[in-house]
Give the backbone structure.
Amino acid sequence: MENVSNARISSIRLLEKFDNENYLDLEMINKLDRQERQQANEYVQGILRRRSYLDFLISQFSSVEIERMDLFFKNILRLGIYDLLFMDSTPDYAAINESVEIAKTKISSKSGDLANAILRKVQREIDNLPKPNMENRTELIATTFSHPEWMVERWVKRFGEREAFQLMQANNQRPSYFLRANCLKTSPDTFKLRMDKAGVEYEESEWLPGYYRVNTLAEVRAKGWFEKGLCYVQDIAAGFAPSILDPVAGESVIDVCAAPGTKTLLLAELMENEGSILAVDINPDRIHKIAENSERGGANIVKIQRADATEERFKLADAVLLDAPCTGTGVLSKRADLRWKRTPEELEKSVALQAELLDAAANMVNKNGRLVYSTCSIEPEENMMQIENFLKEYDNFELEELDDYLPEEVLSEDKKSYQTLPHKHNCDGHFGVLLKRKF
């Protein structure tokens, strides 16, 4: 059980740091070997998806108030209870004994005894666990589904309780992933044969060509297909924005906020590696990812520039893609930490930054050129409300219909925008529009 212990200890330390700094330092588990890293990632993301509910159970079974607990110890309990309730592969005795041992060796013998008492109570009551019963309805829902109260309030008001519950339940599921075959290195048919031969279970998407849903990435990583550039991870909804931009061979394209470069690579595929793509990003820590992905994927037409798109001036392009920074409320299954990091104030800041970037992107587009604006958010302020405000100022742009590119079930009634929702479309939540510059 040495490997599991390493994964557990690393997970507990990472979660403790997140509680202290509100920052998910994945480097703390990336140094583990592949099996340990997968285990640790499952613990970290799973616990963050269920954090409020786990804390509720701790408060019900502990003689010590949870507010007074040492953060390291609290995360030992979170991990132990998560193991008992949600990890079918972990026997109950291992879930308890490992957690108790960590508490004893890393804190004290007394802490180990307390962890043992709490976890054994949970084990005894596992078929009859207490349920949240707060008088405040928002607090009750937030605790039950482990989402912050401000999100609960917004979504219940917007969707109604039943659909909001479905959305939050979808956010709390282990995500599946989409692989996209890199058509600069292989073909969809050849890639499918490769997966069949390797025994990779997949489901081909009917929405866009070359996308395959898989439940695990372990087999693909083990085969080294990512390093060879044969495929990459990209949610089907993330592929919509480059697809509606529809760049063709020979065009000039600017990809704003391009890191880590998976959309850039798709643009190069659609252009058959002919023309030019300028990939722009401000983040010095992420811009090298564009170069890595482009080189690995064989995208020879990509040039990279580190710049603040709101301040730099660029040569006008035939097509511009702005996949804008956002709150990420459409990807809370894969990025469970975001639900605890985001605030209403951050939403306001995000909207303001998007407006600046949209203004800058509009001034990069040639006459008769195209601009795609997209986010991985499900919040109206970041999406259609942002576009409505933009069109009030820019009468030289108009929305284009998207039914030639995307399935009807993801389109708005007027077919001029798309919005995916995790509980409805079984993919990440993304929004996007295609704008054409008239003059």
Q: What stands out?
A: The first strand starts at residue 177 and ends at 181. Residues 348 and 381 are 9 Å apart (CA to CA). The chain has a mean pLDDT of 96.
